[in-house]
Amino acid sequence: MANFTARMERIRPPRWVHVRFPRGAMFGEPGNHTKHRRVLEDTLRAAVTITEPGGKVELPYRWEAPPVAFRDRQIAEGP
Q1: How far is Cα of residue 8 from the mean position of the Cα atoms in its chain?
Q2: Taking the complete model, does pTM exceed 0.70, yes or no?
Q3: What is the torsional sign of CA 31, 37, 42, 48?
């Protein structure tokens, strides 16, 4: 599971899931338990269904809360 495509293309894991969430919140907004569960279930499903080496699944979920601030920098979705 990753939110930074360029890094994963360099690392080349056997299979991976791309999420568009900020670092440190890979399952979605804090407190959004329904989304957390969906992301987890889809990630586990991808681990079984990705058959080609280096295969990737992009999950459709997007960050719905206001942008996150870290050290006074705004952090929106992952790339």
Answers
A1: 12
A2: yes
A3: positive
